[in-house]
Design a protein that fits this description.
The protein is α/β, with parallel strands linked by helices and about 375 residues long. The protein is about 30% helix and about 25% strand. The chain has ten helices and 17 strands. Strands 1, 10, 11, 12, 13, 14, 15, 16 and 17 form a nine-stranded mixed β-sheet that branches. Strands 2-3-4-5-6-7-8-9 form an eight-stranded parallel β-sheet. The model has no long low-confidence stretch (mean pLDDT about 95).
């Protein structure tokens, strides 16, 4: 694709800062994801990256029917967008139990499921589900080294899985694992660590099945280990960043070949020194949880971030004399997922022209339920 794929023919149509998305490139990324598996049925893509119904619909047209999400709002957006199988990959507690069951009751043609790693949480899910007449599929969430959620492999995990199998109101959906701790840039090292991890998971699955417990499926991995789950297992795969991509993953994983499909439009709003420019790209316009550089500006390779505040990003660059106030810059964020959530809409660019606007629907904490 051309090096000027990101450039707007009429940038004055769009106020900055703005999130731009490029459907042709998103479509190509979807094609590459499906090609990696050979079939769309094993894909359970994560929507936390984009949170947009239109991107979901692009995937359903490609034959993808299963999705993964992190919030109730994302789950509802998926139901509205035509998904048929939705996994909430966050153990619901408190009011979120009722919210999830409310969705399952409203979208009767959608299979909603969730994860659990705690006996008390399983009991609460089962009790609430019984009052609605719904049987909720529950995946056992395994901690395979991330140390964030999940239960380590072992007898305690077996006990919880038995509970899911025995209690009315819930039923075992299988095993869920997120191996986000495996992020070596060297694919050989990453694969070696992944193989040791997955061998233990397979042994655990065999142990469950030998005990007479059904394990219908395994949902495995995020983006860095997507190729391994795709090539070496029968798991459902749940990458998310692959849809829009960012420079953090691009620079870290040479073995993953996806296109940047989202760009930030920003403008020079001040020139506070002969070697400085200030952009309207503050914390509220690009994810700020990582150290600088938080944005990689296309065509600007020698910029150093000096000040980053709510509405401003000041850069030191030897190219400063080439810019005047009002000029546009295009940037790729380091981390696209939390960046998208900062925008209420994405400007859709086709052939360099503004073609549409897509609501970032599921950035909200609540839609209906």
């Amino acid at each position: 694709m051309a090096n000027d794929w990101h450039i707007l023919a009429s940038p004055d149509e769009i106020p900055s800062p703005a999130l731009l998305v490029y459907p042709e490139r998103i479509g190509e990324n979807i094609h590459r994801m499906v090609t990696a598996l050979g079939q769309p049925e094993r894909l359970r893509t994560h929507v936390k990256t984009h949170k947009m119904a239109e991107v979901v619909q692009m995937q359903t047209k490609a034959g993808i029917s299963k999705f993964k999400c992190a919030t109730i709002a994302e789950a509802e957006m998926l139901g509205q967008a035509g998904a048929r199988d939705v996994l909430l990959a966050n153990q619901p507690v408190g009011p979120n139990i009722g919210r999830l069951l409310g969705l399952a009751g409203w979208f009767r043609d959608v299979r909603f499921s969730t994860i659990a790693d705690d006996a008390g949480a399983v009991g609460s899910l089962a009790e609430a589900a019984q009052t609605t007449g719904i049987t909720l599929p529950v995946w056992l969430d395994l901690d395979v080294g991330m140390g964030r959620t999940g239960i380590p492999l072992g007898q305690a995990a077996i006990t919880i899985y038995k509970l899911i199998d025995q209690l009315p109101g819930v039923e075992p959906a299988g095993l869920h694992l997120y191996d986000g701790h495996l992020h070596d840039s060297d694919p050989a090292k990453r694969l070696s660590k992944w193989q040791m991890m997955i061998d233990k998971v397979h042994s655990f699955r065999t142990e469950l099945e030998t005990a007479g417990l059904p394990v219908p499926a395994v949902v495995g991995g995020g983006t860095p280990t997507f190729p391994f789950h795709a090539q070496h297992t029968d798991h459902e795969c749940s990458p998310g960043t692959t849809l829009l991509w960012d420079f953090g993953y691009h620079d870290s994983f040479d073995d993953l070949d996806y296109l940047n499909a989202a760009v930030l439009l920003t403008r020079v709003i001040s020139k506070p020194g002969s070697d400085c420019i200030t952009l309207d790209l503050g914390h509220k316009a690009v994810a700020a949880e990582n150290p600088h550089p938080r944005v990689q500006f296309i065509g600007l390779n020698n910029a150093e971030a000096l000040v980053h505040s709510e509405e401003h990003l000041t850069l030191r660059t030897t190219d400063a004399p080439d810019f005047k106030v009002g000029d546009c810059l295009y940037g790729i964020p380091r981390h696209i997922c939390p960046t998208v959530a900062l925008y209420d809409r994405a400007h859709v660019i086709r052939g360099g022209k503004l073609a549409d606007q897509w609501q970032v629907t599921a950035r909200a904490r609540k839609l209906t339920y």
